[in-house]
Amino acid sequence: MRILVTGGAGFIGSHFVRELLSGAYPHWENARTVVLDKLTYAGNPANLAPVADDPNLTFVQGDICDPVVVDDLMRDVDLVVHFAAESHVDRSIADASAFVRTNVQGTFTLLEAAVRAGVGRFVHVSTDEVYGSIEHGAWAEDQPLSPNSPYAATKAASDHLALAFHRTHGLPVCVTRCSNNYGPYQYPEKVIPLFATNLLDGLTVPLYGDGRNSRDWLHVDDHCRGIQLVASKGRPGEVYHIGGGTELSNAELTARLLDICGADATAVRRVPDRKGHDLRYCLDISKITAELGYAPRTGFAEGIAETVEWYRTHRDWWEPLKATPPGTT
Ligand SMILES: NC(=O)c1ccc[n+]([C@@H]2O[C@H](COP(=O)([O-])OP(=O)(O)OC[C@H]3O[C@@H](n4cnc5c(N)ncnc54)[C@H](O)[C@@H]3O)[C@@H](O)[C@H]2O)c1
């Protein structure tokens, strides 16, 4: 079995690769894994350090938009798991050009190469943000897409392309859409690692607007197990939701982090709301539960405490990232 993982040096992709190579996924114990990652500011070789010497891992630094590199790596591949993306909403509001290039053109390049190579399965990793915002209830997989941020719009475009390649070319594509992930090795621009590391340093945390925006939180390990189930047993041409089952407003999430880090409300700095900030996302996960037996395993209280503890004990990982923000070197 040969698996191509794009974006495998990022937060979620590296978790998937570390788990895969440590034998966590049934029947894939001896899979040969190729990681293709451009190593943007969000990609970090340190994320793969625990498995760097594994003989089943090959790391290739390269761009998913480069058809020569992609064609070469796609040969003899049984499964593609496509994580690579520009992933930070705030950056897409400031300048979306890299999002259009990587998320749309890059996904298209991979899909074309996958058709040419006749790969056995292509899992496209996407997000609940493609649906827009929902005040009450939960989205099912057939909900029309209505993205609001430039990030979400590029992910929606890539979802449409992936499903079109299934319908048009018969490529065995599955699309996964998940809620907000948290866990170790997440770049400290995203809310949980940013707030946790600020609080561990005795700094304030910037809370957007009135703090009412609400998200479902999914531990990265549960997300990756869901992706593995879809890759193994999902029906081609289908979309599967992967959620964590803990819905919190940003104010509630902040209160949990203050509590774990031993800080109080004086550490919270209110900042103007994000432009076009979606109020609420909520996924119905009954399809993946019924068809593939998925259920989140990590309770939020336990998962968030372990996550903060990881940042507390891995300053060597995040301090250099916060000391040299992207664009300053
Ligand atoms: N983090 C979340 O909460 C979340 C939620 C829903 C969906 N997702 C999706 O999951 C996937 C992974 O997210 P993440 O949080 O791990 O992102 P991340 O930003 O941590 O990692 C992205 C990785 O992709 C690589 N990359 C970027 N552009 C590339 C290119 N042109 N060619 C090759 N590699 C490139 C980066 O170097 C990095 O290693 C993304 O597709 C994202 O849209 C993430």
UniProtKB/TrEMBL annotation:
It comes from the Bacteria. Residues 4-307 form the NAD(P)-binding domain. Its EC number is 4.2.1.46. PROSITE patterns: ADH_SHORT. It comes from Micromonospora fluostatini. The lineage of its organism: Bacteria, Bacillati, Actinomycetota, Actinomycetes, Micromonosporales. Gene3D superfamilies: NAD(P)-binding Rossmann-like Domain, UDP-galactose 4-epimerase, domain 1. This is dTDP-glucose 4,6-dehydratase. It catalyses: dTDP-alpha-D-glucose = dTDP-4-dehydro-6-deoxy-alpha-D-glucose + H2O. Pfam families: GDP_Man_Dehyd. Its cofactor is NAD(+).
